[in-house]
Each structure stands twice: as structure tokens, then as C-alpha cells.
Write a structure and sequence with these properties.
The complex is a heterodimer of chains A (about 100) and B (about 575). Chain A has about 100 residues and is of the alpha+beta class. Chain A has one domain. In chain A, about 20% of the residues lie in helices and about 30% in strands. Chain A has 2 helices and 6 strands; from the N terminus they run βββαββαβ. A 6-stranded antiparallel sheet of chain A has the order 5-4-1-2-3-6. The radius of gyration of chain A is 13 Å and the shape is globular. The N and C termini of chain A lie far apart (about 30 Å). The C terminus of chain A is likely disordered. Chain B folds into 4 domains: about 100 residues, Sulfite Reductase Hemoprotein, domain 2, CATH 3.90.480; about 160 residues, 2-Layer Sandwich (Sulfite Reductase Hemoprotein, domain 1), CATH 3.30.413; about 90 residues, Sulfite Reductase Hemoprotein, domain 2, CATH 3.90.480.20; about 130 residues, Sulfite Reductase Hemoprotein, domain 1. Chain B is built from 18 helices and 20 strands. The N terminus of chain B is likely disordered. Classes of the chains: A alpha+beta (about 100), B alpha+beta (about 575). The interface between A and B is medium-sized, with 23 and 29 residues.
Chain lengths: ~100, ~575
């Protein structure tokens, strides 16, 4: 397993729906990758993971490496791009948008 | 309790097994157990670690974007009422579509965990369930999608598949095998169930008492693909379950549990040796045969009554022949999508779920209802799911084919491509699957679109695409196999050539370094140019050309290098 490199965002799946979630700067999980809090420091991210892991609400809390260029944040790996965007548009016309959820 | 779904009043399928009170009570109890497990998970009484094996035992996975529910379609047979019920589930609890799989099952990709008990209850109303569609158990028994209708059939495999399903469902000894275990059964002269790529493959053959079984063991695709060997020949019907129980018990005892990549029976067979394995099976049966007494055969006979083959009412075929003469599109559809039937005035219709550019195997709720209506109207209320991810109406009068074709056209289901390049198999891949290393559906879509205009020219050609080494897309046995991998953070597609299924199953030969998605399409362009140049005649298929010439010249074409030969 390759060592995770900063910067990272925190991601999980929603226990109720299985939806991909990102931890936002406002202290809530959101479904939109663009709403994710970016951590430049892995230690700070690890502390945050411990704080936001609620097994009654989310599954598989993990760090997702990202790259930041001209203030645009993107996942480093294509798997995380697919997780963020949903199945290809030709596979299923996605309904994704910015959704704030309390879980 | 979930509100009962409303169904149209339909006639029972003529040839479908009907659950009895015991089956229905068992399912109700199982749903109640699962409902309680979900409630305890949501209340925090169960951790995810404790809950995960429980949900998996009921077919509920967590995928990339959502939960996924895999529902068993026993031996691929559905009544029209069941198909209609699946459409209702798709609309009520999912996103209005379902995905038919290479194991003749259906998957819903977007259920909410909290809804899954209600879905399982709705399935129980349909005499369906999701038991043993996951986990290290005996999975759904698969068979020939033309069973009971095929011209070359020795015996209908479905009663035996049902018999095995009843024996293996909730079998107390086989809930925690070293790994998942797959059984396929074929009743035709030709094998349409890919039996040699299964842990156990059963082939019905003529025998002393009418029919008997040849038993193949140790096949499987995945990381270490192996073609199964015939271990027992001419096994009497009464000895089938003792053989199966002995084989699975010996595997349960000796199969490895320390490494999941070496835990399938194919690896165990390699380690213990075929002769030693066979001796142990024979020894085991000295002790287990008494458990399978005459009551077990009585159950089989009762099941056979449910599948009793009847003589179908003759119909005047004039409308069919008139349309054949008048309509080239109908004629082409018949030549591709319609298969001769054991009864002269009838045929089996394959409905393609591979419209060009669509996700292979997906059907919307309205398409499911349309197929159910057609089965009610023209096909004795019976449908089949094929392992090629299409739907079959097995018994349709020739006279009704024009009307079926019209309705298929209206529903966008009349794609005339069975056996052609766009009739490809693709696993869900990384668009859905948490195990995948690359996408497979978009590759399939791209291939179908790119070669649409030349697919008649290319002729019969099967492409099978897997999004990871687990090979759910059966890439090892495709004329062209495509395996998606992660190469240093980039999707990479390896190509194999020369695979085939059937009794002469062969594993494709890996050609060399993989391709990016864009490179893959160019490589396929060159490959098909080479095939068209080298084929002996327009009737020599791609597979036949590769078999006759070997792979070297085709490999050179793939990589765009000069052919040394």
C-alpha cells in the first residue's frame, strides 16, 4: 500500500445510503467533492479523522490524496475521481449536486 | 411492514418452479431476521464489523457510491410476474433500472440500507430472495438460458438445478466455505453454461437410466484461471447429491483459508492431486450415501412435475413467413436474435440488452415491464436471464414473432446484434464496483459505438471485459478478452486472444503490455483490419481465424509492428 501523501481530504460512505461523503470546513459531511476541507498536514488530518469517525453514521472513513493547482482541488487517483463524480455520464445520467447532509 | 406492491393479474408461468409453504415460511423468517439485524446496526447495537457478514449473507454489498443488492435469479428463470415485481422495486427503491449479470442474477446499484429489509420482503412476495448471492457459500446455480427449449437438449437441466438449489440453500455445513463456490449445469449437446469455468460443472449425458451426469471439478477464472477437468463420468441421478456433498465437504476440509487468492477448489486440486482427491471423494461417499435416500429422489420428481415439458399449441405460421418475405429488418432480427426451438412452430427470442452505447445488461423498469408483458402475451409468462447479459423469451410461436418484433421496436429493445461485437459482456467495473481496478462499461460502450457500422462485416465475435483480475466479465474465455488494471495510477487494458467457452473451453493468450483506453481502440482497429485481411473467406469467424493461424500475426497487428511471419 503506497504511503498517503498530503494534501488530503477526508472521505467516507454514509451508513444509511452508502453515498460518498466528504468532511467539510463547516463541520458537516457533504456529498460534493468541491465542498471538502483540504488538509495540508497529515497529522492534522489524522486527528480530524479520529474526531469525525462516528460508526453510527459513516463507514470507512479514510484519507484521499488530492492535488491542488491554481486553487483547483482534484483527487490524485482516478478511482477517487470516479467516486467523486459518480458513474460515467453515459452509464447513468448523474444527479449529483452540492448536498449538505446531517448524519 | 411494507405496503404490498400491486401487480397485474397474470397467469403462472407454465414451466416455473412454484414455492411451497415451507419455502415461503423460510423466506419470511429470514427477512424478519435481517430486518432485526439492520435495526440493530442503525441503533448502534451492532458494529459495522459485526454487521457486514450479516448483510452480505443477504446480498447487500457496499460499492463505490452506494449499497448494491444482488438478487438471485435461480438458474436464470423468471416469471413475468417476477420481472414486473423487479421493475416495481427498481422504481420504488432504486433509480429505475436494474443490471443483469454474468451469473444470471440482477443487481440494483442504489438501494438505501434502511430500505433493504422492505426490498427483501417485496422479493419474498415474488418467491425471490438474495440469499447466498454473496459470501463463501454455494452461489446461484446457473444453467443454459435455452433450457427446456433447445433443439439439442439431452434433458432439461432446470429441475436438477432446482434440486441442487434446495440442497445447497442454507446448508449448515456450507455457509463458511474457504471461498465462494459456483456450480453450473448444462443439458444440451452444446455447453451454453460455460460449465468448465465453474468450481463444479455438471453435464447431463445419456445414461443407463435415461440420463446421467459427467462431473467437472476445479474450473474457474479469476486471478488463476483453470479449465475444469472431468473427474467423474456417468454418475447416476440418484448419486448426484452424494457426489456434490462429498466434493464440497472435502474442499471445506482441505481448502486453504490463509490466503484468499489460493482458497478456491482449483488451487486445492492442484495441491492434493486429482487421484488423491478422487479417492477421498469415493471414501467420503461410503459414509454419506445413506443420507440421500428415496425421499430425496421423490423431491426431484416433484420438482420435475413443476417443469413438465408440454406440447405447445400449434399456430398458423403464415404471418411469420409473410413478414420474413416482406421486411429485411425483421429477417435480419430473426437471423440474429431468434433461435430454433425443440418444437417446430416455435422459437426462442433473445432480447438484446446491448443497444449501442448503453451499459451492457442494464434494463429500465419500463423495459422490464414491457418484457414481462411480452412474455405474458406471447411466451407463457416465462423469461430467462442469459449469462451473456441478455433476456430470453424461450417459447414463442413463429406466428407471434412479428408482433414481438413490433413491441421490441417500440421499447428500444430490438437491437439486432446477438453474437456480434456489440453483444459484449462487461462487468460493472470501476463505475460501481469497489474491487475494480479500472472501468469496463465505458470501454464496452466505446467498442459498441465505434464498430457499429462494421459489425455485420466482422461477423460473430465475442468480447468480454473485466475491470479487475477477479474476471467477473469472463475475459479469459472471450475471442477477445480485455482486462482493466491500474498501472501506476493510470487505467491500463490487457488484451487476450483465442479464449473460448463450451466443452472445448480454452483460456485466451495474453498478448503483451496493456493499452491506455485511447490506444486500445487504435489497437483494435489494427486487429480487425488484420482479421479482415487474413480470413479465409467471409464466413470464417474471428475465432476460427485465430485458431487456424495462431496469435502471432494478430499480436503484431495489435502492437502495430511488422508481422515477422
Amino acid at each position: 500500500m503506497a504511503k498517503v501523501q498530503a494534501p488530503v481530504v477526508i472521505s467516507a460512505n454514509c451508513l444509511l445510503t452508502g453515498a460518498v461523503l466528504y468532511w467539510g470546513p463547516d463541520g458537516q459531511w457533504c456529498t460534493d467533492f468541491a465542498g471538502a476541507q483540504v488538509y495540508g498536514d497529515l497529522d492534522a488530518a489524522a486527528v480530524a479523522v479520529a474526531a469525525v469517525t462516528d460508526p453510527a453514521a459513516v463507514i470507512g472513513v479514510d484519507l484521499v490524496p488530492v492535488r491542488v493547482s491554481n486553487e483547483v482541488v482534484e483527487p490524485r487517483h482516478y478511482r477517487e475521481v470516479i467516486r467523486a463524480d459518480g458513474p460515467g455520464a453515459s452509464v447513468f445520467p448523474g444527479e449529483r449536486g452540492i448536498v449538505r447532509v446531517s448524519v | 411492514m411494507v405496503q404490498a406492491l400491486q401487480y397485474f393479474p397474470v397467469k403462472e408461468g407454465l414451466f416455473v418452479y412454484r414455492y411451497n409453504d415451507f419455502d415461503r415460511t423460510f423466506l419470511r423468517e429470514r427477512v424478519l431476521q435481517y430486518r432485526d439485524q439492520v435495526e440493530r446496526r442503525l441503533s448502534g447495537a451492532l458494529t459495522e464489523e459485526e454487521f457486514k457478514p450479516l448483510r452480505l449473507m443477504n446480498g447487500v454489498y457496499l460499492q463505490l457510491h452506494a449499497y448494491m443488492l444482488r438478487i438471485a435469479v435461480p438458474y436464470g428463470t423468471l416469471s413475468a410476474q417476477q420481472m414486473r415485481g423487479l421493475a416495481d422495486i427498481a422504481e420504488r427503491w432504486d433509480r429505475g433500472y436494474g443490471h443483469f449479470t454474468t451469473r444470471q442474477n440482477i443487481q440494483f446499484n442504489w438501494p438505501k440500507l434502511v430500505d433493504t429489509p422492505d426490498i427483501l420482503e417485496a422479493l419474498a412476495d415474488l418467491d425471490m430472495h438474495a440469499i447466498q448471492t454473496s459470501g463463501n457459500t454455494i452461489r446461484n446455480v446457473t444453467t443454459d438460458h435455452l433450457a427446456g427449449a433447445a433443439l439439442d437438449e439431452i434433458a432439461d437441466p432446470r429441475p436438477y438445478a432446482e434440486w441442487i438449489r434446495q440442497w445447497s440453500t442454507d446448508h449448515p455445513e456450507f455457509q463458511f466455505l474457504p471461498r465462494k463456490f459456483k456450480i453450473a449445469i448444462s443439458g444440451g449437446v452444446s455447453d451454453r453454461a460455460v460449465i468448465r469455468a465453474h468450481d463444479i460443472g455438471l453435464r447431463l449425458v445419456p445414461g443407463m437410466e435415461g440420463v446421467a451426469f459427467d462431473i467437472y471439478v476445479g474450473g474457474g477464472l479469476g486471478r488463476t484461471p483453470v479449465v475444469g477437468n472431468r473427474v467423474f463420468e456417468q454418475v447416476a441421478v440418484g448419486d448426484l447429491l452424494p457426489h456434490l456433498e462429498a466434493i464440497v465437504s472435502v474442499y471445506n476440509l482441505h481448502g486453504r483459508r490463509d490466503n484468499k487468492y489460493k482458497s478456491r477448489i482449483k488451487i486445492m486440486l492442484r495441491e492434493v492431486g486429482l487421484d488423491s482427491f478422487k479417492e477421498e471423494i469415493i471414501d467420503y461417499m461410503k459414509h454419506n450415501k445413506d443420507a440421500f435416500d428415496k425421499t430425496v429422489l421423490k423431491v426431484l420428481n416433484e420438482i420435475k412435475d413443476s417443469f413438465k415439458v408440454q406440447v405447445l399449441a400449434p399456430k398458423d405460421g403464415a404471418p411469420y413467413w409473410e413478414r420474413i418475405d416482406a421486411d429485411p429488418a425483421f429477417r435480419e432480427w430473426v437471423s440474429r436474435n431468434v433461435t430454433p426451438h425443440r418444437q417446430e412452430e416455435y422459437a426462442s427470442v433473445t432480447i438484446s440488452l446491448k443497444a449501442h452505447g448503453q451499459a451492457p445488461g442494464d434494463a429500465t423498469a419500463s423495459q422490464m415491464r414491457a418484457m414481462a408483458d411480452m412474455a405474458d402475451q406471447f411466451g407463457f409468462s416465462e423469461l430467462r436471464v442469459s449469462h451473456q447479459q441478455n433476456i430470453v423469451i424461450p417459447h414463442v410461436a413463429l406466428a407471434d414473432l412479428p408482433a414481438v418484433f413490433e413491441q421490441l421496436l417500440q421499447q428500444g429493445l430490438a437491437t439486432t446484434n446477438i453474437g456480434l461485437i456489440s453483444d459484449l459482456i462487461a462487468c460493472p467495473g470501476m463505475d460501481y464496483c469497489a474491487l475494480a481496478t479500472a472501468r469496463s462499461i465505458p470501454i464496452g460502450q466505446a467498442i459498441a459505438m465505434r464498430y457499429q457500422s462494421m459489425e455485420q462485416l466482422l461477423g460473430p465475435l465475442n468480447i468480454k471485459i473485466s475491470g479487475c483480475i477477479n474476471a467477473c466479465g469472463h475475459h479469459h474465455v472471450g475471442d477477445i478478452g480485455i482486462l482493466g488494471l491500474d498501472k501506476a495510477g493510470v487505467e491500463n487494458y490487457q488484451v487476450t486472444l483465442g479464449g473460448r467457452s463450451g466443452l472445448d473451453t480454452a483460456l485466451g493468450e495474453k498478448m503483451g503490455p496493456g493499452f491506455s483506453e485511447g490506444e486500445l481502440m487504435n489497437a483494435l482497429d489494427r486487429l480487425f483490419d488484420r482479421y479482415l485481411m487474413l480470413r479465409a473467406s467471409s464466413s470464417e469467424t474471428f475465432a476460427e481465424a485465430v485458431q487456424r493461424l495462431g496469435t502471432e500475426s494478430f499480436k503484431a497487428a495489435l502492437y502495430g509492428v511488422e508481422d515477422a511471419a
